[in-house]
Structures are given as C-alpha cells and as structure tokens.
From TrEMBL:
GO terms for molecular function: lipid kinase activity; phosphotransferase activity, alcohol group as acceptor. SUPFAM superfamilies: NAD kinase/diacylglycerol kinase-like. The keyword Transferase applies. InterPro entries: ATP-NAD_kinase_N, Diacylglycerol_kinase_cat_dom, Lipid_Phosphate_FormReg, NAD/diacylglycerol_kinase_sf. PROSITE patterns: DAGK. This is ATP-NAD kinase-like domain-containing protein. Keywords: Kinase, Transferase. One of its GO terms (cellular component) is membrane. One of its GO terms (biological process) is sphingosine biosynthetic process.
Length: 476
C-alpha cells in the first residue's frame, strides 16, 4: 500500500485483483482502477456510507447512481498486514474520509424505525428487509425496528418514546404514520422536546407526500435516497398546524381538505390495492359528478398575490439551507404552544359560495401526481390555502394536465392564500374532511400554524421542488 497523502490511498483492491486507488476531496470520493482499464468512479461524499479498516483490509460502502437508481456498492482493498506504517496511515485516511463524509452529522445514528405492514400495498416489511436494512447496516447505524400492529400504534410509540435513546425516528410507511408520530409527540410528557425528535419518512404507503417534499421529484419515491436521508439528513424545523374541532386538539403536518379532493382521498380507501392510481380513479369520478360544496371559510391572510408568493419562494430557495431548529426553552418542554388567533376577530376574510374544494397544506406535493402548493415552504410560519371555485368538466380534465408540476397554481378560479390561521364551517350535511389523509368528522374546525414546531431530516434544508415561477401567457 502507498499512502501518498492523507486524502489518497493506493491499495491492491478486490476489483478483479487490480490495483485500486481510493481518494477523496472536499466534495467526492473516487475509486480508480490504477491500471486505467476502467473509468474512474466518483461518488459524492454524501453517498459514502462507511469506510472501515480492519486488519489489512480497507472496506468502503458507497451509494452509486446507476441509471437513476441508487445502489449500495462495496469495494475493498488490502495491504501487507505486517506493514505497521501502512496500517496507521490507512487508519488516518479512513478517519479523514469519514469526517468529510459525515460533515455536520453524527456517524452511526441511533434510529427507531417504525414499519407499517398495512400501509400502501402492504410491502413495507419487504421494503424494510431488502432495501432499507442493508443500507442502515452498511452505514453502521444502530436501529430498532418496530412493526405497527394496529391503527394508532405509531402514535402510542411516539407518545412514550425515550428521547435520549434515538437520534431520529424513521417511518417505512405512508404519510398516515408520520401524522401519527406528530400526534404522539404532542401527547409526550415533554411535547416540545419530543417535537425536536427528527422524523425521516421512507416511502412505503399509498400517499408518500412527506418524502416527495423532502427529497424532490427525482428521489421522492426512492427508498434508497430516503434511507440516505435518515442516515445523513440534517434536522430542519417544519411548521405544524393545530386542528381544533369540538374542543379536541390534534395536529396536522401535511394537509387538510374538504370537497372534491377529500372525496378523492377518503372516498377511495377501499381501493388501496391500486396504490396511488386510486387517486386518479377518484379524480375521474369527481369530474363526472362535478359536485358543488358549500362552506364558510374564514382566513387570517398573510399573502394572496400569486406573483409575490412565487417571488418569496424564489428568494427562500436561493438563500442558504434552512437548518435553524429553534431550541426548546427551559421550562417550556411540558406545554403545547398556545393558540394565538382562536379568539381574535381582526384581519379575517370570509369566503362563502359553491366551490369544488378547499385544500390547505404545508408542502408542495400532496400526492405524487398533485403539486397543490408549489410555493409552500417548510418553515415560513404560514399554511397555503387553495379555494377552488367551480369550473367546467372540460377545465377540470385540462387541469389534470400539469397538476404534478404545479400548473394549477396560476388557474384564475383557484384562489391561493398564505395564512397564519383559518376556520372552516360546512354549510351542508354530508362530506369528507381529510387531515393528512386521515378522516375527521365533517364538522367545523379551526386551524393555526405553529412555526417550526416539528422536525424532519433533510438533505437540502428546503423542499427541493422545481416550480415554473412565471405566470403562463393566457392565464388571468
Ligand atoms: N397493523 C396495522 N393494521 C391496520 N392498520 C394499521 C396498522 N398499522 C398502522 N395502521 C394504520 O395504517 C394507516 C396508513 O398508514 P400509512 O402511513 O402507512 O399509509 P398511507 O399511505 O398514509 O395510507 P394508506 O396506505 O392507508 O393509504 C395509518 O392510519 C395507521 O393507523
């Protein structure tokens, strides 16, 4: 072995018994076949899971992108066992790579993995065993896996979690389990501390908007990328809403909706076997019925001009990653945050009249084929609200085109607000109310945003979601 400097190591590797040269710099890890018969492989340092030296063997586990998919690759090389100088140089080199690869994050995280065997198409256990676990092992994470046994189990787990035992809670599920964790943290004896426990969702449900928002379109449905986020993502504060209904308070991290979109979500639960296609089916059924809903919606508006909101997003996304997680104040840990606007009358605007739906949410995507809130940000302290007025069946079908890229944003019959709170009262008997995809009674409720209350792991410190900010020609 020749250690030419602390960043480069030349070993006899196991890749066809050819000499392999490992090196790293501030951004990437490179392995090179020294005989130059195959091309160099560069791996971003963020994709280095572990590098180990044991005896005379140096062993690297890295993620390599292969036709868009991330695969775990294991490469090793060995040197003369009796060469103590080489052994010590190798140890220093390995330490150097690991420090660079885990810059700003702890190595060997302690993770609680909550797997919902029932979510989506029922594949979560297999996804955990075959895709997630090998990566956690390669990254030398210490983890405990729990399989949820009934609805509400994840909430119980979160309400009793020993906060000092884990660095993050990972879900192998859909958004419903993340919703349960958030509500469980709210019931913890130290809720404010519990909310600082980061959540890392791995997509295995039928609604996986949380991972889509955190990881972006390319990686949002990718189990490996989501597992990497659990290992290397940094805590990012995310806003959460209190939902107050009939005196009972619960929490929502993703969305609330009534009307067509709630019918699509909750009215297709029996079709879970279809995966996310059930939402497409629900939409087409909604076009046929084109049902008008009547609500009274009062909004404590902060912003409502679409251009300005699009500009605000651009500014947010071009600034440094937003990793500032507010500390838990002394003496604050046992009380939930107060509701600031529930009894206040000033600055509210009320809307009534027939609408297709009201959708409110905290992240760009609400499902893989709907970017309902393209200008949503994780921690701007407001909820995005869309009140979708009645449009023709033809326009409904047209609106389906481009829904996954946020095209609906510019539609003139879609009023869009950013608000710190809102109140919704149904003016009709029957309907669906969906909170993060879970059913709540179809009754009046009050919603208020708590800035940065909960925590999620993120690789980018924002929602890395592309949205065309320009108003398209022809839209009002
Ligand atoms: N063992 C279980 N049996 C039945 N239900 C369960 C079990 N474990 C969890 N659940 C429930 O499954 C629901 C779906 O959770 P999950 O987050 O995995 O998926 P989802 O994508 O949000 O929804 P779904 O796949 O149901 O459409 C949650 O509301 C949870 O309470």
């Amino acid at each position: 072995m020749v250690a030419t400097n602390s960043r480069q190591l030349v070993l006899i590797g196991t890749l066809g018994q050819l000499p392999v040269q490992f090196s790293f710099d501030s951004t990437s890890f490179t392995f090179r076949d020294s005989s130059k018969t195959s091309p160099d492989v560069h791996v971003p340092l963020s994709h280095v899971l572990s590098v180990d030296v044991s005896g005379s063997v140096v062993d690297a586990h890295v993620l390599v992108r292969n036709r868009g998919h991330l695969d775990v690759v294991n490469i090793s090389g060995n040197f003369q066992e009796d060469d103590s100088e080489a052994s010590s140089a190798a140890k220093d080199w390995v330490q150097g790579v690991m420090t660079a690869a885990y810059s700003g994050v702890k190595e060997c995280r302690r993770l609680l993995v909550v797997v919902n065997p029932h979510g989506g198409r029922g594949k979560a256990i297999s996804i955990f065993n075959h895709e997630v676990e090998p990566i956690l092992k390669a990254a030398r994470c210490r983890y405990k896996a729990v399989y949820t046994e009934y609805g509400g189990h994840a909430e119980e787990i979160a309400s009793q979690i020993s906060l000092d035992d884990y660095d993050a809670v990972v879900t192998v599920s859909g958004d419903g389990t993340v919703h349960e964790l958030i509500n469980g943290f709210a019931q913890h004896r130290e809720p404010m501390k519990a909310f600082r426990m980061p959540i890392a969702p791995i997509p295995a449900g039928s609604g996986n908007a949380a991972s889509l928002n955190l990881l972006g379109v390319e990686d949002g449905a990718n189990v490996t990328a989501a597992t990497l986020n659990a290992i290397k993502g940094r805590p990012m504060a995310v806003d959460v809403l209190s939902i107050l209904q009939s005196g009972k308070r619960s929490f929502s991290f993703l969305s609330q909706c009534v009307g067509l979109m709630a019918d699509i979500d909750l009215g297709t639960e029996h079709l879970r076997w279809m995966g996310s296609s059930r939402f497409t089916y629900g939409f087409l059924r909604g076009v046929l019925t084109r049902k008008a809903y009547q609500f009274s919606i009062s909004v404590k508006t902060v912003m409502s001009e679409k251009e300005k909101m699009a500009e605000a997003l651009q500014e947010y996304n071009s600034s440094a990653p937003h990793y500032d997680v507010p500390p838990v104040e002394e003496g604050d840990a046992t009380a939930l945050p107060p509701l600031q606007y529930v009894d206040k009358q000033d600055g509210w605007t009320t809307f009534e009249g027939p609408i297709l739906h009201m959708y409110a949410g905290k992240g760009p995507f609400v499902s893989s084929d709907l970017m309902q809130f393209p200008v949503a940000m994780p921690n701007d302290g407001v909820v995005d609200i869309v009140i979708q007025g009645m449009i023709s069946r033809v326009d409904m079908l047209k609106s389906y085109d481009g829904a996954e890229t946020g095209a609906l944003y510019w539609q003139d019959k879609a009023q869009y607000f950013k608000a710190s709170a809102y109140r919704l009262r149904p003016l009709q008997e029957d309907g669906n109310l969906s909170i993060d995809g879970e059913r709540l009674p179809f009754k009046e409720y009050y919603a208020e945003v708590h800035r940065g209350l909960a925590t999620m792991l993120s690789m980018s410190g924002r929602y890395p979601v592309d949205f065309t900010l320009e108003r398209p020609p022809g839209s009002a």
